[in-house]
Specification:
single chain; 335 residues; alpha/beta; Nucleotidyltransferase, domain 5; 2 domains; five-stranded mixed sheet; 10 strands; 41% helix; 18% strand
């Protein structure tokens, strides 16, 4: 009999539910929260309220699309953290209620762990990573280099000291007048731009850690100085600006990955998180890391989604790694 797991993801501003049967995704429903766009970022209180409104219809739709009877579920998996506490509480409370009412196991999932393991979702027999590998988590909230020895033994060996890579994209995009989230918009403009037109700093940070605050400040001053000379500067150079800042961020990431490969002698690189969808990052890594095996998740599994939560739930179910009902959500939750 197949193992059917319902996954619930509410770590930030997407309400998502998915059903997995063994390691095959039957449904993956995501409700986005457009309310945050006018604020230029996620407002925690508004996010938790939207999750409360969305959680029931999203779960119902996931079950319908999966064409599975709720009584055929074997477990409920949910994001315990990291994330916005109010948002996490909505998902965890709902998952606990379903688990109790159906008398099936409850399974907690680390959100960042799930981003990397999304590469193990069944995908038309595509090759899957083999352990050990170097995990590269790049998202709106995190930038991490992780040594992964197996599904659940992971060690962070490098991370950002301030802003995440996703924040760098969003904050630079905001200075250009682009709506939140700006990463995909920068990527789109960059496709027709000259990536060598403008130069930005590459912060010097020891070992495998990152820092993006200095780059953000450098970019801010660059924009202000040029607007003072020509008020139409952004409009005239938007494609070249986006191409140049995207190239700089890709270089920062690539330098650290190469250093991580040399330190760990690991040549299997697995990416996860929303920024792993960036076209320039994918192209640069494929070009410069030809001697490595690279794994990027399908685009629909890069952003916050419940499919990756359901997959980890399935992996934990097979090991009978269940969760007690007194477990608490954690805004900060280390791998």
């Amino acid at each position: 009999m197949p193992i059917n797991v319902l996954g619930i993801e509410t770590s930030c501003d997407e309400t998502s539910a998915a059903v997995i049967s063994d390691n095959k995704i039957l449904s993956n429903i995501i409700a986005n929260q457009e309310v945050h766009q006018k604020y230029g970022g996620v407002v925690p209180e508004l996010a938790s309220r939207a999750h409360q409104k969305n959680i029931i219809p999203v779960v119902e739709r996931a079950l319908i699309e999966a064409n599975i009877d709720i009584k055929k579920l074997n477990a409920v998996a949910f994001t315990r953290g990291p994330g916005l506490l109010g948002s996490l509480l909505v998902g965890s409370s709902f998952a606990k209620s379903m688990s109790l009412s159906l008398d099936i196991p409850l399974i907690e999932v680390n959100h960042m762990q799930a981003h990397l393991l999304a590469n193990f979702i069944e995908n038309n027999n595509r090759n899957k990573p083999t352990f050990p590998f170097l995990g590269v988590n790049i998202s709106g909230g995190h930038t991490q280099i992780i040594l992964c020895k197996n599904y659940f033994e992971m060690e962070i060996i490098g991370e950002t000291l301030d802003d995440s890579i996703g924040e760098a994209f969003d904050k630079c995009g905001k200075l250009l007048g682009l709506n939140y989230p700006a990463g995909s918009k920068i990527d789109r403009f960059a496709k027709n731009g000259d990536k060598k037109k403008f130069k930005f700093i590459i912060p010097k940070v020891s070992e495998l850690d990152f820092s993006f605050s200095g780059l953000k400040t450098n970019f801010k001053r660059f924009i202000e100085n040029n607007i003072s000379k020509n008020k139409n500067f952004i409009e005239k150079e938007i494609e070249n600006i986006c191409a140049s800042i995207q190239e700089t961020i890709a270089k920062i990431l690539l330098e650290k990955i190469i250093k991580g490969i040399n330190i760990t002698n690991t040549k299997t690189i697995v990416f996860g998180g929303g920024v792993s969808a960036n076209s320039r990052i994918r192209k640069s890594c494929k070009k410069e890391l030809k001697n490595c095996k690279l794994f990027f998740p399908k685009i629909e599994y890069t952003t916050d989604n419940a499919a990756m939560i359901a997959l980890v739930g399935y992996l934990k179910y097979k090991e009978k790694n269940f969760t007690n009902y007194d477990v608490e959500s954690r805004a900060r939750y280390k791998i």
